[in-house]
Each structure stands twice: as structure tokens, then as C-alpha cells.
Amino acid sequence: MTVTTRSPWTFALCWLTVVFEGYDIVALGAAIPRLLDSRYAGITALDATFIATISLVGVGIGAAAIGPITDRFGRRIPLMLCVLVFSVFTLIFPVLPNTGLLALARFLAGLGLGGCMPVAVTMMQESARENGKAHSSTMTMTGYHAGAVTASLLAIVFGAHWGWLFTLGGVLGLVLLPVMWAKLPETSTVATGGHDDAHPRVRPADVLRQPYLRTTLGLWVAAFMGLLLVYGLNTWLPQLMRGAGYGVSNSLLMLLVLNVGAIIGLLVGGRIADRRGVKGTTMFWFGAAAVLLLLLSIRIQNEILLNAVVLVTGVFVFCAQVLVYGFVGYLYPRQIVATGMGLTSGVGRIGAIVGPWFTGLLVAGGVAYPGGFYLFAIAAVLGVLAVAVIPKPRLTTPTDGQATRAARAA
């Protein structure tokens, strides 16, 4: 399947940047049991929970803050700075002597990491053909799952030597930087002096004013629900399935099958959205996810059928979230598209924290099965409703005046 972008370097480097996020999330998850077993730096379960949470807080702040910066100064240099910050603080993480410094390093690495994905997706959309923005977004996000699979395999190879996961991630980020400097083109018209003088510059705060308010709120709620699903399922699916009576090995296999389905969904979902319409496709994807999640709340005896349902669930759940990002390039004028993308991603990260946390409460209360799947299905339905209120986008990147007229007309 081809990628609808005019620059192969843009795709390759943006895709590799997104790889780091999937790699980092899994690397931390794989390292925490090793940290606790070895009592590294006197770490406790409470410390580990705080470190994991503060890392996600950093990612959310980084995602929200990067948009206005790149809308003002361009995409290329801020993206490289984000990679630099992430790489340095990931590299030093394994050698820090106490939990306070470990948490600080994870927070700062999260700031850099949070800025990477929204800028990478924005650059991909800007370098894509006008009717290929959703597909370019979903193709870029396959990097997340490639990074997650890579970190999973390396965690097995490194075993108790958990520090090598972070050392390798930091080194690879630093190695990528000179390649980005040499080969990554600038995609922002602001940085190249190509802005449209026929209309006044839109200020970043205008995403919360008319005519963008309805669009912004719809995107934020949809992104929140989407990442609640993604992180909630990736964190707790094995435990939920164990609560249903499935074996441990089967539960872990289902997590792998879920992410294989995610890759399939990302490969096809964006192309369908660009051809059939981003709004209708995203609503269908969220709706199908809700039905499948409810189906998983029923114990399925046939193992092949069960894994098939999990696979198809992955196809819809993960791609629905990424299709929300596919909206952004069609709905905001180019002058503030990175601001819209960054804020949408940043608010979505709150869902990434709430999802695992609330599901954990259900696990602790002994009602995670089937209650967890009911929670996820409700989140998917709310995703449908959020997308429903977003104005139907044009299949071109709007200028300031076009976006304003389209939003008012809707």
C-alpha cells in the first residue's frame, strides 16, 4: 500500500519519530517489574505508579504546548528539539540514583515525546496530497505499533538488564537527529514566508472561539474517548480476560492479536476515510468498536472465534482514535493546524491517563469483567456522539476564510 505523501524523507523520518512513542511506553512497562524486583533506588510500587503517571502528564503537556510553537516557528526545528529532549532524558534514566530524579527524567522525556507525534502527523498531512490526509495520518501511526513490538522483543532479549532498553532508545534518537537535519524538509508555509496575506493571521486562542469552538470541543472529546480506549485496553486487556476465566497465556496472546488488528485498521482505515468521508468513517469506526467491545463482555467458548473478535476489535478501536487526527488537517486553516493538532492530542492524553486508572479501580473492586468492557463501549458511543457534532470537513486544506465560512455554514 502506498503512502499519499510527496516526500519519502518526510514519511520515513516522521514515521521513525512516532516509533519512539510506542517504544517508550512499552519499555517503561517492561522495566517497572524489573525495577520493583531489584528494588532499584529503593523504588516501591507507589513510586513506580507515580513515575508512570508523571511520564504521561509530561507527554500531555508537551503535546498541548508544541502546536502554537510550530505554528509560529515552523515544524522542522521544534520537532528536532523534541527528539533531542526525549533522547537525552531517556538516555540518562537508567543511571539516576533516586526515585525523585527518575520521575523528573521521565517527566522531561515525556515533554519531548509528547511534542513528537502531533508535529510528525501535522507534517505528514501537510506533505500529503489534498485528499490523502487521513491515510497519511494512519500510516504514520503504524510507527507507534512498530515501536511497541520492537520494545517487547528487546525486553525479552535484555531480560533483567532493563537499562539497555532506555540506553538504546536514547542513542537511536540522537543518531536520528543529524539525518533529520540533513533530510527533513520544512512543511509550514509560516516558516518559509508563504502565508496568505489576503486574510489575517489566526491566533492560537481562536480554536476556542467561533467559528472553531464546536469543531474543537468535538475533537477534544473524541480524542479523549479514543485514547481512553487505546490505553485502557492495552494496559488491562490481559487482566480483563483473566477475570473472564481465560488462561494467562491466552490473555497475553489476545493483547498481541489486538495490536495486529490495530495495524490492519491503520493500513486501511485512513484510505477509506479519504475516499468515503472522514466524518462518516470515524463515526462508523467508533460505533463498530462499541458493538465489538460489548461482544467481548460475553464469554466466547470457541478460541478461534474469540481471537477473531479481538482482532476485529483492534481494527476499529485503534484506528478510530487516529482518524480523529485525520480531521484536523481538513478543519483548521493551515496557520493554526498544528495548534489544533497539538491541543487535540494533549486533551486526548488525559484520556490515556483516565482509562487505565478507572479500569484499575474496576479491577481492584472485582468488577472489571464485564464492567471494563461496558466502560469501553460507553466511551466508544460517546466518541460517536462527539464526532457527530463536528462540521463535515472539505477534502482540501482550508484557508482561513474558507474554514470560517464552512464552519459557519455547518
UniProtKB/TrEMBL annotation:
Keyword Acetylation on entry: no
PROSITE patterns on file: MFS
Recorded topology in the membrane: Multi-pass membrane protein
Keyword Transmembrane found: yes
Entry's transmembrane regions: 12-36, 48-70, 77-96, 102-121, 142-158, 164-182, 211-231, 251-270, 282-298, 304-328, 340-359, 371-390
Domain Major facilitator superfamily (MFS) profile: 10-395
Principal subcellular localisation of the protein: membrane
CDD domains per the UniProt record, alphabetical: MFS_PcaK_like (cd17365)
Gene Ontology CC entries for this record: plasma membrane
InterPro entries: MFS, MFS_dom, MFS_trans_sf
One MF term in the entry's GO annotations: carboxylic acid transmembrane transporter activity
One Pfam family matching this protein: MFS_1
Swiss-Prot/TrEMBL keywords: Membrane, Transmembrane, Transmembrane helix
Location in or out of the cell: Cell membrane
SUPFAM superfamilies on file: MFS general substrate transporter
This protein's name: MFS transporter
Species this chain originates from: Tersicoccus phoenicis
Lineage of producing organism: Bacteria, Bacillati, Actinomycetota, Actinomycetes, Micrococcales
